[in-house]
Amino acid sequence: MSSSLQDEIFMREAIALSLTHLGRTGANPSVGCVIVKHGEIVGRGVTAEGGRPHAEPQALAEAGTQSQGATAYVTLEPCSHHGKTPPCADAMIRAGVSRVVVAVADPDPRVSGQGLKMLADAGIEVTIGILQKEARFALSGYLMRQTRGRPQVTLKLAVSRDGMLGLRGAGQVRITGDAAREDVHRLRAESDAILVGVGTAIADDPELTVRLPGLVHTSPLRIVLDRTYRLPLNSKLVRQAQVVPTIVVGRAVPAAAGEGAAISARRTALHDAGVECLDLSSLSDLLTDLAHRGISNLMVEGGAEVARAFLAAGLVDRLWLYQGNVTLGADGIASPVVPDQAPLGFEVAEQRALGDDSLTIFRRQTIARYE
Ligand code: AOF
Ligand code: ZN
Known about the structure:
Layout: H1 3-20, E1 32-37, E2 40-46, H2 55-63, E3 71-76, H3 88-95, E4 99-104, H4 114-121, E5 125-128, H5 132-148, E6 152-159, E7 164-167, H6 178-189, E8 193-197, H7 198-204, E9 221-225, H8 236-239, E10 246-250, H9 260-272, E11 276-279, H10 283-292, E12 297-300, H11 304-312, E13 318-323, E14 332-334, E15 346-354, E16 357-364, H12 365-370
Parallel strand pairs: 3-4, 4-5, 6-12, 6-13, 8-9, 8-12, 9-10, 10-11
Antiparallel strand pairs: 1-2, 1-3, 7-14, 13-16, 15-16
The structure holds ligand AOF and zinc ion.
């Protein structure tokens, strides 16, 4: 077998491992690592839940003395900094690994090529770029936060056969079936935060938590865009705010505004109920704030106005569009996007059936070009 084919086979294993902890490693990216000796995997590691330990020390520990003279496959450049754990590049050197194959270089300024250099300086053969595109899928949110200072934004919408998001004043309308619903919960599980507009929060009274059988998962941070702090105190979001972190993003109230006192009273009541209240004036300020909190993947779940605002600001990177079999008619709320027409600047990345429904994934073309 050619060595590059062998490299791809083992890197695929490392990538598969990295996908298992996507959305569960906090501000740290989910990285996969396998140690290979005489053509066999002798150690496996994935960044632990919460972000530490990193992938490499776990794989090296499993391999034990077999790490001597072995090849390590890692989806991200091993770290070189003394953070909350010692550098992974050091661990590789101490374990006597003779070759390290990396998919993607780490843009974290504390690493940024230093990990690769440490390995090469120690006489280890280093190969970079194997299956880079495939490995980026699990790292894309982290890479976006490191290089652009904002999370990757995934907009999720569910439309009826006739392109409607729901019915005005009707609360939650069931558009898609169980398979699509499960898919949405998986997407939530891979996200660090989920955002909706206050209109959707009032109409649907959603929980925005991850509920999948067999998956124990810490629910992502929940965010409601709510200019005048209208979110009801008896909504599920507020009632669970002590348990699942919840942020309401309003706008600083102008002192002279007649409604100002009522708005600040509602803000105080939300704060007292355990909701974090943030006064920000733009979506891009919000994304910067989230990036500072270590949020790499933000999922935007609607409604129509919020979806339009994110699209208009050019802040959507991926668009997950589910289409159900129901028809809602002319009284429906029209969706800003429909499956058979890619929004400007987007291309279809994937299309698949989910029970009686379908999913179309659009991706921003500029991202594709950087890959
Ligand atoms: C690795 N292997 O599995 C991961 C890495 O806060 P710290 O000290 O844990 O450092 C976080 C940084 O570590 C993060 O920004 C990224 O550069 C790297 N993540 N590195 O060698 C891993 N998750
Ligand atoms: Zn590390």
